[in-house]
Records
---
Amino acid sequence: MTELIKIERNTNGEQLVSGRELHINLQSAERFSKWFSRMLDYGFEEGVDYTPYQKVHPQNNQEITDYVIKLDMAKEICMLQKSEQGKRMRRYFIECERKLRELNTPKTQSEVILLLAQQNVEIEKKQIEQQKQLNAIENKLKIVEAKQVNSPQDFYSVVAWCNLINKKVELSEAKALGKKCTGLSKELECQTGETPDPRFGKVKTYHVDVLKEVMGGQ
């Protein structure tokens, strides 16, 4: 296939062309700056579809503005020309995309295994990062829960009390225990309190007598 226009690839593997080169290849008689400004009226976004940059003109050595254009934008611009050359350039871009997909598609068993191995490495990296984030959250929760244990007047949250008596509790169970503590506090006309919690903003605290009645403990 004869090269009609130079196509580059960025670090994300996206195919890119020069706005000025596209203008020339589309054989537009309109001045480039006016033509490109008119194309932008169709809703293309800077930083998403195209990126401006400065370069030196090869003939007069003056600095001029060019644009790195993603291939999807280039194909749309070709359609907007409503010309045979526009159709030709669009077909060329589609063919270039097809060839790139073929290059990126594994053909042998060894290539498939290599691709799967690379994907597994990426998955493991993400899992390790997620685990680090979970560990950081758990550490923060431990600090908050430790503070809750030291709440004044012998008031504790459900989770803080469970930590104090070495009782493991799931979130759903903690909610259920909290409802029981709330009900018993009302029944005994016992005051409840509140303490900050990074997960829910604030959680209720209960008097030790209520907590002992519902969950046991020292």
---
Amino acid sequence: MKSVAFLLLFLAGCASIQDVRVLQIQGFQSVVEAEGPNYELWAREIQEGGRRVHLCLAPKVLVQEYYWFVSVQVDGKEEWRYNSGMVYGGLAPARPIDCTVSRPLPMGRLSYRVAFQYKAPGGARSPGAPASTQTSSPSVPGSDRIVSSGQVSVSPGISREISIPVEIVHNITVVGVTINNVRPAAFLLDTGASLTIVTPIFARALRITVPPNPPKVEVTVVGGKTASVPVVQVQSVKVGDFEVKGMDVGIFDVFPEAPEIAGLLGGDFLKHFRFGLDHQAKRLTLALPDSQ
């Protein structure tokens, strides 16, 4: 895991931030047009493997936990999105700052669309999460087929809620994922991605074959470009004790410079569960919905 941690430091390229005064010292600027009554958005451009934007959300109110979503647009077109999962303030109410670094972006005018939801001390919650944070299943161009997000398989005696250790370095999260019950591998957790992706190298190791004329979907990849990604169905995708069967995944080299990363776990898996990410404890919590 040391090599994975080193990789994450390279990808993030940012320092741990606890106070907005540190943001100002490090060259961040407040994005006034993207701010809300209960939060501030701070941004700075960095050059690490291309043009990236380093974003930090700072609550203006005391929170026990919060969730935020940002759509990064260049000249009015969405090029990248971030979905934080639940950010915990710790045992005492606080104003924890959550930061993220985008993938490389094309040149042009940057703008941002933000959604923010929080739980205040005492349990009161802000208004419900906006529709912009919801994940939908992509369709296959040229057909009526919708990419399958599979079905949850619940074994007898399994707890309805699990907590899984993850690696978190500057808000980039790596989680262990098992495909086809073979062996766990390191996947990037991307709650804003609609499609789970497996790298070609890992697919070959699992003996997953791509047929000659597979269905394909258009996805946004590193660099802000789109790629036509072949889709295959796997027997199962498993995180901890929770398993989703019959799920379609894309086959694509997510980070060619990072062979330690076997894929990307997206919202098509996570939407089956209630989930939260505790950055302080480095734990991912998954829970079955009440209807399950």
---
Amino acid sequence: MIPAHLCILLVSIHQLPCSNLPKIYARRLLAILISLCLSLRADERRRLRRSECTGSKDLQGRLTHLVANATGTGWEAAFEQASNFVSQLTLEEKVRLVTGTAGPCVGNIGPVSRLGFNGLCLQDGPLAIREADYASVFPAGLTVAASWDRNLAHVRGQDMGDEFVGKGAHVALGPVAGPLGRSGYGGRNWEGFSPDPWLTGELFAETIIGMEEQGIQACAKREYDSSRRR
């Protein structure tokens, strides 16, 4: 069941006049809230299905507790910290976190100062930092893959990570695992390493390890249809 306060907020956002909020932002926020509502309904259904395994019941057989819908061994402390943080957020703060804010980076997540969260700066791209002065342009993924050299990929990742951190970024939107290179006309084939999955996997891992050794969070990507861009 969709929480009542979310439904009210959905209606309120939908009826906002243009003078209060630009249409594009109103539509984006509306889409995010609808997705959140649908996600909550799906989560509830999953919890009910799993209740026999993950829940505890009182003497009358009523469900009294459900564990968080999270998996992974060794992440217990992170799950606990994240759950504690989210439980203290207001609805407005949650919306702001998933919507983003205006700022100097490609993606900007605003701070929640009262909880000690200073915000995040997400920056492109897979071979250099975008929208920055005096930024290096590192060899493309395709060029690195042509060397078949794990160490080269690792060092490249370290150097990229160091520059992203030096420019104030927290998350680097890269490296790129695709496009697959199935078409020689693909205008973004150079961003990825190779259509060979083994070679891409090896160099992808080395690049990420090198980047994160410098204190930047790597955000692996690429959408499947990039090979169709010319």
